[in-house]
């Protein structure tokens, strides 16, 4: 099966307004077809809204979010892991199987594929447990498996490790790195500079709703180009 | 689980689609409360293989049911209303079947002294003059209409019947008797409903026997020319049975607490 | 007090002797109300879920109307259904008046807004929870309703049971459209009204206790069948 790639993603003069105030934008940016992009920036900079805007979940006040294929088809090739993942009121296996069932897979097929993913991320033992009783780390793993099960071309993650302990974080990172090595484009926001350095191939620095700087991770961390980025890396900008 | 629901529904609808030998008859509460229907209906079923479904309502509603064609026949006791029903073409004819009588009930100590009254009229006048509480059906039923005609006959007009003592219950005979029992008030009832009534409290039968209190029941089939769907043939079969010697024996023979309630008089007028 | 005691004794006697009339009217009560609850649930639950996921101009007004309809007086519903189904009414040709079907129709009108409204409350909460995921997964409106209804089925069961509770104890509408015909449309509530009218309080109260017992039994049975009380089970 040959599918035309949906990447690169192009944002043109894209703006999101809430309560009469522009909180993100204007953004003009092209997200390259390959890489592991980490979105960083101070609290309230608009990282979440930027990711949601790319994913098509925010109404644009102006501009456009353009993929290489029609919007509806592009959406089906994306996945999103929210900071607080939605635990559907069913068991773990059925949560992971759900996206497959939406797209015409039989219940049996979907469950088999979901079981394989649970094995992969180390949740196999919890398969029959109700999802809402899982711990924070388990929830993120479930959400990750559910996002990856349809093999998206691009995966967005909004601070997936925000409240996890070190072990759970490393498990998540391992899954993300292996997904990336198998060709999944990843765009993820984080607060954790260590995590950013470990994972990023390139960085988007967001401040006050705008992309101030973007480029290869090594360059960004060693030689930030803008004064805001420098201040941020030195810990001078927190908000 | 769903199958059970569905089959229950189908049953419900099947019961709605009436079979060959089922007819509906509107009767008055007083007739039904007498218990006579429980004697007659099984016999009708046995003799005619006809299931008569009774709608127990006041005369006013019984007549409305006949006018709307929602029943096949009515058995009621209010002559003027029956004649209007016929005149407007809703019924084919009127056949008198039997009569029972009304009685005056009141508190055992009889504050108005109606037990010794010479006539029903005198009894009502005594109640109204002393403004002793009286509960009326107030529901446009045959019994209610009979009561109103008695008040009119006694010269006690609507203006005299003040709410302080004249209470309109707006309900069936049993509920009205319950109200009278609760208020310890006078009330007019058909004899059968009174005998069958289970909550007599302090009430007693105080006055009866005046011929103006006789209560004629008549059977009126609904006119199939107005309502082509009515089961005129079944209504005819039932009528033939109701005026037969078989019905006469059952009606005259019916006893409640040792008292004869109904007198068969079909074909006598 | 004595009346109540006699009522309890009468209820015991009716149940112990398996009084055939009691069994007949109890079964009819269940048939009518369960049918009405089933139909009302099939109408009300998807509608409630739809209202939760669909944004449209007069949505708030529609919800207000729905909540107001919960308070429909059964007597008025009964009267309107009666006039509709009467031989001289618009649906008279079907001959449904004074049949269990007429009673079901009246109860469906009474129960649907109640079930839809409770379902809407439950679905609205779940939709707030599921919103991001279902939007992100690019679901159709129908898929969203399906997911909410399926995952919220315990809460929706409560909506249906509330409908059952209202329906099984309802007398005003079914008395009018059913006519309380012996062996045809008499149910527990109309029988209670009848016996009260006759002044036979013991029998009326006995039937009342049977009715309460039946309502409790149905609720309990459904909870057992759906295992709502088993913790950790989904």
Automatic annotation (TrEMBL), chain A:
Keyword match Calcium: no
Protein family according to the UniProt entry: Belongs to the ABC transporter superfamily.
UniProt-listed SMART domains: AAA
Full protein name: Phosphate ABC transporter ATP-binding protein, PhoT family
Keyword check for Transport: yes
Membrane topology: Peripheral membrane protein
Pfam families from the UniProt entry: ABC_tran (PF00005)
Subcellular locations according to the entry: Cell membrane
Classification of source organism: Bacteria, Pseudomonadati, Pseudomonadota, Alphaproteobacteria, Rhodobacterales
Boundaries of every ABC transporter domain copy: 9-233
Gene Ontology cellular component list: plasma membrane
Domain of life: Bacteria
Swiss-Prot/TrEMBL keywords: ATP-binding, Cell membrane, Membrane, Nucleotide-binding, Transport
SUPFAM superfamilies: P-loop containing nucleoside triphosphate hydrolases
UniProt GO MF annotations: ATP binding; ATP hydrolysis activity
Source organism (scientific name): Aliiruegeria lutimaris
UniProtKB/TrEMBL annotation, chain B:
The keyword Signal belongs to this UniProt entry's keyword annotation: yes
Source organism of this protein record: Aliiruegeria lutimaris
Alphabetical UniProt keywords: Signal
Keyword set includes Membrane: no
Tree of life domain: Bacteria
Segments forming domain PBP: 18-246
Coiled coil: none
Protein name, UniProt field: Tungstate transport system substrate-binding protein
Gene3D superfamilies noted in UniProt: Periplasmic binding protein-like II (3.40.190.10)
InterPro entries associated with the record: ABC-Tungstate_binding, PBP_domain
Signal peptide: 1-20
SUPFAM superfamilies in the cross-refs: Periplasmic binding protein-like II
Pfam family, one: PBP_like_2
UniProtKB/TrEMBL annotation, chain C:
Keywords: Membrane, Transmembrane, Transmembrane helix, Transport
Signal peptide segment: none
Membrane topology: Multi-pass membrane protein
InterPro entries: ABC_perm_TupB-like, MetI-like, MetI-like_sf
Pfam families noted in UniProt: BPD_transp_1
Parts of the chain that traverse the membrane: 32-53, 65-85, 91-116, 155-181, 201-222
Subcellular location(s) of the protein: Cell membrane
Domain ABC transmembrane type-1, first and last residues per copy: 26-222
GO cellular component, one term: plasma membrane
Biological-process GO terms, alphabetical: transmembrane transport
Record flagged with keyword Acetylation: no
Record family assignment: Belongs to the binding-protein-dependent transport system permease family.
NCBIfam families in UniProt: ABC_perm1
Protein name, entry field: Tungstate transport system permease protein
Organism expressing this protein natively: Aliiruegeria lutimaris
């Amino acid at each position: 099966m040959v599918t035309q790639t949906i990447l690169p993603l192009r944002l043109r003069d894209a703006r999101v307004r809430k309560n009469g105030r522009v909180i993100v934008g204007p953004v003009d940016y092209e997200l390259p077809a390959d890489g592991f992009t980490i979105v960083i920036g101070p609290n309230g900079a608009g990282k979440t809204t930027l990711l949601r805007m790319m994913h098509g979940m925010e109404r644009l006040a102006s501009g456009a979010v353009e993929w290489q294929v029609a919007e509806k088809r592009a959406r089906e090739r994306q996945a999103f892991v929210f900071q607080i993942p939605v635990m559907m009121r069913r068991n773990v296996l059925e949560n992971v199987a759900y996206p497959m069932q939406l797209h015409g897979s039989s219940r049996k097929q979907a469950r088999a594929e979901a079981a394989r993913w649970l094995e992969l991320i180390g949740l196999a033992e919890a398969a029959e447990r109700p999802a809402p009783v899982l711990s924070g780390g388990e929830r993120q793993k479930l959400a990750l498996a559910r996002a990856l099960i349809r093999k998206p071309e691009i995966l967005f993650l909004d601070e997936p490790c925000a409240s996890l302990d070190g072990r759970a974080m490393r498990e998540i990172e391992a899954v993300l790195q292996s997904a990336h090595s198998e060709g999944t484009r990843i765009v993820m926001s984080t607060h954790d500079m260590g995590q950013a350095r470990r994972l990023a191939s390139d960085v988007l620095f967001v401040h006050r709703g705008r992309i101030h700087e973007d480029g290869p991770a090594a360059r960004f961390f060693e030689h930030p180009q803008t004064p805001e980025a420098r201040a941020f890396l030195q810990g001078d900008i927190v908000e | 689980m769903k199958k059970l629901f569905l089959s229950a529904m189908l049953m419900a609808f099947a019961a709605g689609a009436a079979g060959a030998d089922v007819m509906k008859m509107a009767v008055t509460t007083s007739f039904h409360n007498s218990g006579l229907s429980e004697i007659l209906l099984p016999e009708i079923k046995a003799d005619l293989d006809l299931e008569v479904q009774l709608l127990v309502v006041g005369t006013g509603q019984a007549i409305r049911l006949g006018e709307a064609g929602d029943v096949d026949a009515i058995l009621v006791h209010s002559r003027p209303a029956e004649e209007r029903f016929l005149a407007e073409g809703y019924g084919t004819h009127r056949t008198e079947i039997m009569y029972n009588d009304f009685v005056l009930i009141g508190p055992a100590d009889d504050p108005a002294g109606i037990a010794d009254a010479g006539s029903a009229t005198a009894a009502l006048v005594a109640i109204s003059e002393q403004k002793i509480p009286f509960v009326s059906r107030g529901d446009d039923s045959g019994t209610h209409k009979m009561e109103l005609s008695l008040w009119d006959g006694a010269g006690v007009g609507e203006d005299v019947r003040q709410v302080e003592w004249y209470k309109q219950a707006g309900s069936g005979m049993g509920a009205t008797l319950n109200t009278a029992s609760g208020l310890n008030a006078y009330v007019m009832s058909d004899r059968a409903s009174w005998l069958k009534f289970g909550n007599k409290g302090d009430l007693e039968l105080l006055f009866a026997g005046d011929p103006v209190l006789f209560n004629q029941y008549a059977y009126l089939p609904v006119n199939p020319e107005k309502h082509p769907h009515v089961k005129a043939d079944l209504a005819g079969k039932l009528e033939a049975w109701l005026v037969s010697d078989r019905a006469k024996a059952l009606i005259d023979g019916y006893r409640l607490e040792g008292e004869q309630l109904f007198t068969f008089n079909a074909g006598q007028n | 007090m004595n009346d109540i005691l006699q009522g309890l004794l009468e209820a015991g006697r009716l149940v112990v002797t398996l009084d055939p009339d009691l069994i007949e009217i109890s079964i009819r009560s269940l048939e009518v109300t369960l049918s009405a609850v089933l139909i009302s649930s099939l109408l009300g639950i998807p509608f409630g879920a739809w209202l939760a996921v669909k944004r449209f101009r007069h949505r708030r007004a529609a919800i207000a109307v729905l909540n107001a309809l919960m308070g429909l007086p059964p007597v008025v519903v009964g009267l309107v259904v009666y006039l509709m189904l009467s031989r001289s009414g618009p649906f008279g040709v079907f001959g449904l008046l004074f049949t269990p079907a007429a009673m079901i129709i009246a109860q469906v009108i009474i129960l649907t807004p109640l079930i839809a409204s409770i379902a809407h409350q439950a679905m609205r909460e779940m939709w707030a929870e599921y919103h991001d995921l279902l939007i992100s997964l690019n679901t159709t409106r129908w898929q969203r309703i399906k997911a909410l209804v399926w995952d919220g089925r315990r809460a929706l069961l409560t909506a249906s049971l509330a409908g059952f509770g209202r329906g099984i104890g309802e007398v005003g509408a079914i008395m009018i459209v059913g006519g309380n015909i012996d062996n045809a449309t008499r149910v527990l509530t109309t029988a209670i009204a009848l016996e009260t009218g006759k002044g036979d309080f013991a029998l009326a109260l006995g039937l009342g206790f049977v009715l309460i017992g039946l309502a409790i039994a149905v609720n309990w049975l459904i909870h057992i069948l759906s295992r709502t009380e088993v913790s950790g089970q989904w």
